[in-house]
Amino acid sequence: MLKGINPLLNADVLQALRAMGHGDDLIIADTNFPSDSVARQTVHGKLLRIDASAAEVVKAVLSLYPLDTFVNDAAARMEIVGKPNEIPAVQKEVQKEIDAAEGKPWPMISIERYAFYERSKKAYCVIQTGERRFYGCFAFRKGVVPPDAE
User: Fold this and answer.
1) What would the pLDDT profile of 64-76 be if each residue is shown by its tens digit?
2) Which residue in the list 65, 117, 124, 135 is annotated as catalytic?
């Protein structure tokens, strides 16, 4: 246990988050997502796990992980097949965590299911959660940490 770091963030996840650079993608996926096979195609090459709900995992990750302010797709969700504008409860909960972490409303774009799979394969890494609700899959593009003010 470390002071000031969410205890859900295990050593493997912390190492991956630290290694990522500006513009790298992080996928946070539910239990139904083909996480292991997709993770093998990512830069990191192996699956990471945090056994908690999607919203809890997003809250923990975004406590350390800056979102990219240079793009409009820094936060994304997988669309419901056939209902791209419907936002299920799991995605509403994650949206609240994104807004809280950023201290303001932060847009989360939607991505069609198969396009989401393709973005995931190009990501730096995949964290599979314990989320059992459908469409608990998200992509986050890493931003920058500015230098300390002088």
Assistant:
1) 999 999 999 999 9
2) 117
Which pTM value belongs to this model? 0.96
- Is the Cβ–Cβ distance between 79 and 110 less than 8 Å? yes
Specify whether the CB–CB gap between 91 and 30 falls below 8 A: no
Domains of the chain: 21-141 (3.40.1650.10)
Q: Is 22 a catalytic residue?
A: yes
Tokens of 85: 């504008």
**Active-site pick, 44, 68, 124, 135:** 68
Q: Using CA atoms, how far apart are residues 134 and 131, in angstroms rounded to an integer?
A: 8
Which of 22, 36, 51, 114 is catalytic? The answer is 22
Q: Is 44 a catalytic residue?
A: no
Active-site residue, 65 included: no
Q: Are 137 and 30 in contact (CB under 8 A)?
A: yes
Give the separation between CA 18 and CA 24, rounded to whole angstroms: 11
The DSSP bridge pattern shows strands 25-29 and 125-129 to be parallel
pLDDT digits (tens, 9 = 90+) for 79-138: 999 999 999 999 999 999 999 999 999 999 999 999 999 999 999 999 999 999 999 999
